[in-house]
Amino acid sequence: MEKLFKLKEHNTTVKTEVMAGITTFLTMAYILAVNPNMLSASGMDSGAVFTATALASALATFIMAFWANYPIALSAGMGLNAYFAYTVCLGQLQGIDDPWKIALAAVLVEGIIFIILSFFKLRETIVNAIPENLKYGITSGIGLFIAFVGLKGAGVVVSDDSTLVALGNFGRPEVALCLIGILVIAVMNHYNVKGSILWGILITWVLGIIAQLTGWYVVDPDAGATSLIPSLSASSFIPPSISSTFCKFDFAWIGSHVSEFVVIVFSFLFVDMFDTIGTVIGVAEKADLLDEDGNLPRVGRVLMADAIGTVAGSMLGTSTVTSFVESSSGVAEGGKTGLTAMTTGILFLVALFLSPIFLAIPSFATAPALVIVGFFMASSIKKMEFDGDLADAVGGYLAFLMMPLTYSIANGIMFGVLAWFIIKVCTGQLKKIHPVMYIVCALFIIRVITIII
């Protein structure tokens, strides 16, 4: 262990690192329930997604552990999975058979591009070219979007012909239990309970089982209300097969829809790019891993672990794999090396044999997790500057505003970037526009043209 992770150099011990890895896993294990639930909306088999998520998380986290030697764990990114399922599959590719196969191809291409960008050290340059206000506006907008997805899935928010949206029926168990779950997680967070999001999901699920046993929750598969009680036979603990998702890419559609596919890939790139950089720097700063100049040693390996994880995830059958900010919980417990990440990766493999439990958890039990994670992401709005440059302020604001209102992460990014660019041009600030942003804007202009045509 000492030779692999240099524990003495980092002033840590095996016990501390293992406990930190367990803590990190507990705080991010909710993704094993949320991701299959979310991606199944696009038509994917939830069992296959569960296995793909666990395997991709373990693989990417092991690369981070052994190659980069950092206490950072990776899994299918929140927000990116929502973009995959709701914006791409149920939005831009609506009406196409198995749209998730095209979306997986986009994730594959994104990962390959990331590997190239990371290899030539261009990724940081691109991230630095994006205005801070846009970054914060996009992050907070994604937070609102995934919270809205959660509330809609639980029936707390419903469609309405007069007002577009309305409040759901509090008499329904799904609505009541979702709201209880949100409060449970919030209270646990107040008391710094480890794994509060996971505990909130499990408590909400158990309350749902009680509601089913008492007759309040009625099982009706035709209405989407499946039994909440998992099958616990010996065979059910065998990890679900990924045969239905493994390397299931559809490149045929791409040939005749190149511009639309480019925008899909770019939106994945745009969100994942600064999300990863921000997460990694934030976790590294908390672990005191930055050098005296504020730089992160071996940052190329960190970014490469993220990129390889994304490619592997797309092949296995899950959305973009990225570094998780929940890794900071393990760092707070003293994790400083790859041994923390290795422990988390091992626990993802162990979780493979608990699929009956994770797959029986309904959407109304995972909805509180989406709302609370959305809350944490939306808090980035506090960092936005509204009194400075108007292009930065309006661009960030429109990105934040349009994501939930148009039910699309891509639309929010597009509105924010184009508004920022146009205002910069009209106010004579051409010299302040980074060359990279010209390329970004050109891609979104192509997207607007394809929408109009």
Please estimate the helix content. 55-70%
Average of per-residue pLDDT values: 88
**Rg, Cα atoms, Å:** 21 Å
Largest beta sheet: strand ordering: 1-4
Map the helices and strands.
Layout: H1 2-5, H2 14-28, H3 31-39, H4 46-68, E1 74-76, H5 80-92, H6 99-119, H7 123-129, H8 132-154, E2 157-160, E3 164-167, H9 173-190, H10 196-213, H11 252-256, H12 258-286, H13 299-316, E4 321-323, H14 327-332, H15 338-351, H16 355-360, H17 363-378, H18 390-406, H19 409-426, H20 435-452
Antiparallel strand pairs: 1-4, 2-3
Helix pairs in contact: 2-15, 3-4, 3-17, 4-13, 4-15, 5-6, 5-12, 6-12, 6-13, 8-17, 8-18, 8-19, 9-10, 9-17, 10-17, 12-20, 18-19, 19-20
Membrane topology: Multi-pass membrane protein
Transmembrane segments: 12-34, 46-68, 80-96, 102-122, 134-154, 174-191, 198-219, 251-271, 346-377, 397-423, 435-452
Keywords: Cell membrane, Membrane, Transmembrane, Transmembrane helix, Transport
